């Protein structure tokens, strides 16, 4: 019995630890401007696209929407803040966040920055 429990806990731990390092590519474009020096020398513009999971930048709206979700999600506070349609917000409240499914989808969209109001 101990062996089965140990193996089950180890497998759960391995799954959770592998999910902790999962990432998604985020593109960020870095540009430099053209500068003309006094002696006539010019430095040309260069553009580089970086793909890195560390390039995620949180906006103030994302932070506020996340906090509203955490504390007031049954009242669709995050949806009202992000200006979702009124009918969908009322339906969200009446169905208790689509029995939690819409709520989880909203949270994922807010965290990844793909929610339409962001």
Automatic annotation (TrEMBL):
Signal peptide: 1-22
Topology in the lipid bilayer: Multi-pass membrane protein
GO CC terms in record: membrane
Location in or out of the cell: Membrane
Superkingdom, taxonomy of origin: Bacteria
UniProt cross-references to Pfam families, sorted A to Z: TM2
Transmembrane segments: 63-81, 88-108
TM2 domain mapped to chain residues: 61-108
InterPro entries: TM2
Keywords: Membrane, Signal, Transmembrane, Transmembrane helix
Protein known as: TM2 domain-containing protein
């Amino acid at each position: 019995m101990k062996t089965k429990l140990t193996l089950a806990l180890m497998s759960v731990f391995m799954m959770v630890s592998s999910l902790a390092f999962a990432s998604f590519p985020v593109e960020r474009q870095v540009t430099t401007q053209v500068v003309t020096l006094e002696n006539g020398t010019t430095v040309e513009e260069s553009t580089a696209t970086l793909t890195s999971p560390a390039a995620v930048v949180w906006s103030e709206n994302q932070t506020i929407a996340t906090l509203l979700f955490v504390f007031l999600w049954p009242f669709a506070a995050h949806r009202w803040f992000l200006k979702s349609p009124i009918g969908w917000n009322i339906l969200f409240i009446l169905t208790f966040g689509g029995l939690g499914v819409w709520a989880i989808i909203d949270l994922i969209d807010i965290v990844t920055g793909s929610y339409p109001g962001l």
